[in-house]
Amino acid sequence: MSTPAGLQGAGAVVTGGASGIGAAVVENLARHGARVAVLDVRSPAVPAEVELRCDIADEAQVVAAMAQAHDELGGLDVAVLSAGVGGFGALVDMDAAEWDRVMAVNLRGTFLCLREAGRHMVAGGRGGSILAVGSISGFLTERMMGHYSVSKAGVAQLARVAARELGPFGIRVNAIAPGATVTPLFAQTKVLPGYQERAAERSALGGLGSASGVAQAAVSLLEMGWVTGQVLAADGGVSLWSPIDPAESLGG
């Protein structure tokens, strides 16, 4: 199933589906008629047909949870890899444990989930659609977020490579790159004076993004039957902002 005809009846797994963008994706998929399994370390805010506790940094947990989700859903057609963590600190002050903590979830964990979802889809023989949640931080240079940015850059490249490897099996792999989005993770930036206000001002569409808005873009990308290996920025245009924009010198 390469999902061009829609998501009705599709077996879908969402990692990090307990809150934020992941929870909004779960809700959106359910509205489209998909049968959804949530993999998370917490109980989901939005009820799903299958709810499994899983730390995606733990390989054994990922293997077991993906297999259970596959079995309970009667197959796996869609995987949205949304689980992730944040971090803050200068590279020269960061210890290896903090670097490894973020990489273990955001990059290694996404790889493990993609690998297991891909294996089940290949074995199922009906194609599928995998979507990894990256970030515009993966292609911007933001100070004090080096490990997060590098992990998300890796997610984008992981999706592109996987798209080439899995394409012959009818499996599409894409990534979505949210920007400043109102989620529990983004809420941590409240400790940074003026950060959220600047992000809102620099968005081409104005304001901060919503989890539901990003989820809408994510589900649309899942259904694009002739699109693979792409990274879609769903950021309201905040990544379009330039620090050397000459128009800023023109006032009004």
Tell me, what's the shape? globular
Low-confidence stretches: 1-5
Order of neighbouring strands in the sheet with most strands: 3-2-1-4-5-6-9
Number of domains: 1
Q: Give a count of the beta strands, DSSP E runs of length 2 or more.
A: 9
Helix and strand succession? EHEEHEHEHEEHEHE
Q: Determine the mean pLDDT.
A: 94
Rg estimate, integer Å = 18 Å
Query: For this structure, what is the CATH class?
Result: Alpha Beta
And the CATH topology? Rossmann fold
CATH architecture: 3-Layer(aba) Sandwich
Q: Which structural class do you get from the secondary structure elements? A: alpha/beta
Approximately what portion of the residues adopt beta-strand conformation?
15-25%
* Oligomeric assembly: single chain
Helix segment tally: 6
Summarize the main sheet. Answer: 7 strands, parallel
What is the straight-line distance between the termini?
A: 52 Å
How helical, in percent, are the residues?
25-40%
Q: Name the CATH superfamily classification.
A: NAD(P)-binding Rossmann-like Domain
Summarize the structure in words:
It is a single chain. The protein has 6 helices and 9 strands; from the N terminus they run E-H-E-E-H-E-H-E-H-E-E-H-E-H-E. The N terminus is likely disordered. The protein has 252 residues and is an alpha/beta fold.
